[in-house]
Amino acid sequence: MTSSKYTILTDTEVELIATTLMSAKRPLVITGYLGRNRNAPPLLAELCDKLPIGVVEMVGSDLCIRSDHEAYLGVTVTTHPAVLEADVILILDCDVPWIPTAGKPQKGTKIFHLDVDPLKQQMPLFSINAIRRIKVSCELALKQLNTFLDQQNLNRADYAAEFEARSTRYAKWREELRSLQSPPEDGVISVPYLTSRLRQHVPQDTTFVMEAVTNAGLLIHHLNLVNPGSLVGSGAGGLGWGGGATLGVKLAQPSSFVCGIVGDGVYLFSQMESVYWIARRYNVPFLMIVLNNGGWNAPKVSALLVHKDGLASKSNRMDLNISFEPSPDYPGIAAAAGNAWAATVKVQNDLDQALQEGTRIVQEGRCAVIEVA
C-alpha cells in the first residue's frame, strides 16, 4: 500500500491507473460510500463520460453516481455479474466489493483500490488482490484521473462499440425496471409499484434514509435518484439505525423533506417510541414508510449469501424464529408516542391517497407513518 501525505495520487499512479482504464475492454468501478463526499459523484460521472466504464454500488448507502447515467449498473449486496467479466476493476471507497463465495474477478483482472482506508484495519479478514492499494481522497484522485485523460486527446470513436453496448444494456435494464412498476394483477403492493407511486407524491429534492435491508436494492433502483446526498444509508451490518438516523437527517437538514424507509424488523429495533417522542417534542417532522414483510428476512438472506443450499434454504420463518406473527401495530406506536399521523395500506387502491396525505401532513409540520402490508 502507498500513502500520500496530501492524500492524492502520485503522477506515476495517475498514469498507471488511467492508461490501464484506457486500454481495458470491460472496465468496472465498484464503490460503496464514495457519495458521502457530495463532490465525488459528478467526478465519477465525468470519468464515465470519457471512457465506457460500468459502475456498481455495493450495499446502497450513498448515491455514488446518478441513476440516469448509462454507466450505472445498480446496487447489490453480493457479487455483480459484471465483476466476473471485467478485465480492469477500480474500487473506490468500498468495504466489500464482492462476495467470493458468490463469484469473484477472473484470473488476470487488474484491480486498483483507492480508499480512505484500503487496508480496512478494523477488518482482520479483509483482503483484495490488488495491483495498488492507495490511501487517498477519491475526490482528488478522480480529479487527477479526469485531468490526465483530458490531456490524452481521447477519440470517442475508438470506444464506439463499447459505448454503444453500454447504452444498449442500460436502456434494456431501465425498460425492465419500468415494466416491474405496473400494479400487479393480484392486487399486491409490490416494492417497485410502491416506489414508483412514492416518487410521484414526495418532493423531487427529497432525502431518503434507507434501512430496508432485503428490499433496499429494489427501492434504490426504482427511486431514480440523481442528486448527491439524496440517499443516506448506514453502509454497515446490524439493524435499528433507521429510526434515529431519519430523525438526525431531518435535524441536520431542517428545510428538506426527509423520508425514511425501513422494514418491520428495523422498526422494532429502532426504539421508535423514543424517536417519535423526540420528533414531537422538538418539532422534527418526517415521513416514514414501513415495509411489513412479516418478520426478519435479513438473517435468512445473509445465511443464503454464504450457504445458498444450507439449512436456511430449507427452513421457513417460523422454523428460524424470525416471524412477526401476530404483527405489531407499527403506525399505532408512532401515533401513541409522538402524535404522528398513521395509516396502514393493504390494497393498491388506498396507496396513492395515503402517500398524498402523509406528504401533506409532513409538509405542515407533523410526522407521518405509512405501513405497507
TrEMBL record:
Matching entries from Gene3D superfamilies are given as: 3.40.50.970, TPP-binding domain
One annotated GO molecular function is:
acetolactate synthase activity
Q: Which UniProt keywords apply?
A: Thiamine pyrophosphate
InterPro entries assigned: DHS-like_NAD/FAD-binding_dom, THDP-binding, Thiamin_PyroP_enz_cen_dom, TPP_enz, TPP_enzyme_TPP-bd
Segments forming domain Thiamine pyrophosphate enzyme central: 16-119
For this chain's UniProt record, which GO biological process terms are given? isoleucine biosynthetic process; L-valine biosynthetic process
**Would you tell me the protein name for this molecule?**
Benzoylformate decarboxylase
- Superkingdom per UniProt: Eukaryota
Supply the Pfam families for this chain: TPP_enzyme_C, TPP_enzyme_M
